[in-house]
Amino acid sequence: MSASETPRKPRGRLFFANPGPTNIPDSVLLATAHHTVDFADPAFGEVYWACIEGLKRVLKTQQEIFLYTGSGHAAWEACLANLLSPGDTILVLESGHFSQSWGRMATDLGVEVQTVAADWRRGVDIAAVKAALAADTGHAIKAVGVVHNETSTGMMIPIPEVRAALDAAGHPALLLADTISSLCSLDFRMDEWGVDAAVGGSQKGLMLPTGLSFTGVSHKALKAHESSKLPKHYFNWSAMMKRPLKSFLGTVPTSFFFGLQESLRLMEQEEGLENVFARHTRLATAVRAAVQHWSGNNGPQLFCTTPSRYSDSVTAVLMPEGVDGDVFRRVAMQRFNLSLGGGLGPLAGKVFRIGHLGDLNEPMILGTLATVELAMKVAGVPHTPGGVDAAIATLA
């Protein structure tokens, strides 16, 4: 094939191993294909409120939930706009691309951003968080923002340790947590961990299409909302509280709720939420075993270097020096119909990412790993063959 020819699309179904959006179960797809209904109809209200209770169960909260038509970024903007005022300070704990992204969003909204900087391969040092909070004797910091699972680096940040740092400093700042790539894949305990606002989205662990997002909000955060001065209209929680469904100032995306009802049924009744978490841990361990095996012969290696912070929903793989991760991903896609996640921000071309969250099982993971190894061989990426056997050894 010449350089000018368009690659022919491989036969067979797309093998999707991105870390979000994720694969959607057939029964959820069918549920979202529900005919149009009146969102003011009491029959839909039963579905809606059942879904709200289900979200509270997976967030492990008894507090308030607000929903939006938009991706997780919409929920983050709603969170900031409803809790802060111009000139307020938020302390952002660095973990990768998305922690930086929320910092840039806060800056654009007129909020002062203070960052606890970190090496992206290790994540924020909790001791540095404690020091930053202890130094803020005047309590200028109004909120602390942390990404529970950093999708760009394959890293989990322990939120209970952040809560402990706040408590040790006697600091009144709100604790804001991004659960977008952790909820329903990793255990999350909003009330137990003292999280004041938890931001989530539909397209990852909840196994739904992109476009529905939400914020779990504590009573303390609702009190702070009363004095927030940042501009807001569609995202205004006070206005939402006056609506019959306590969310959505416009049309309610009814189809999402039929899909969400089915997704919650699959996780809670058919599999059991604790089993969902155990499955994610099991499959993530297999992926990491394969990458660690490939790392021989100067091959790819795990980007995250802190085992206690390994993510159970996504693994970021650092390519060998001089090897372009995006070129490798094109080989995987164009030759074998395998879609992998790319590096974000400064990691573009340096890493690729394997998503292992949502609706997946052992054959899907092993198929992904086998094709990654095949693509590495075709693309001339140095590695030690046999990563799939290493994965099988953890699963057997």
Automatic annotation (TrEMBL):
Its cofactor is pyridoxal 5'-phosphate. The modification N6-(pyridoxal phosphate)lysine is found at residue 204. Gene3D superfamilies: Aspartate Aminotransferase, domain 1, Type I PLP-dependent aspartate aminotransferase-like (Major domain). InterPro entries: Aminotrans_V_dom, PyrdxlP-dep_Trfase, PyrdxlP-dep_Trfase_major, PyrdxlP-dep_Trfase_small, SP_NH2Trfase/AEP_transaminase. One of its GO terms (biological process) is glycine biosynthetic process, by transamination of glyoxylate. Keywords: Aminotransferase, Pyridoxal phosphate, Transferase. Residues 31-293 form the Aminotransferase class V domain. Substrate binds at residue 353. GO terms for molecular function: alanine-glyoxylate transaminase activity; L-serine-pyruvate transaminase activity. Belongs to the class-V pyridoxal-phosphate-dependent aminotransferase family. This is Aminotransferase class V-fold PLP-dependent enzyme.
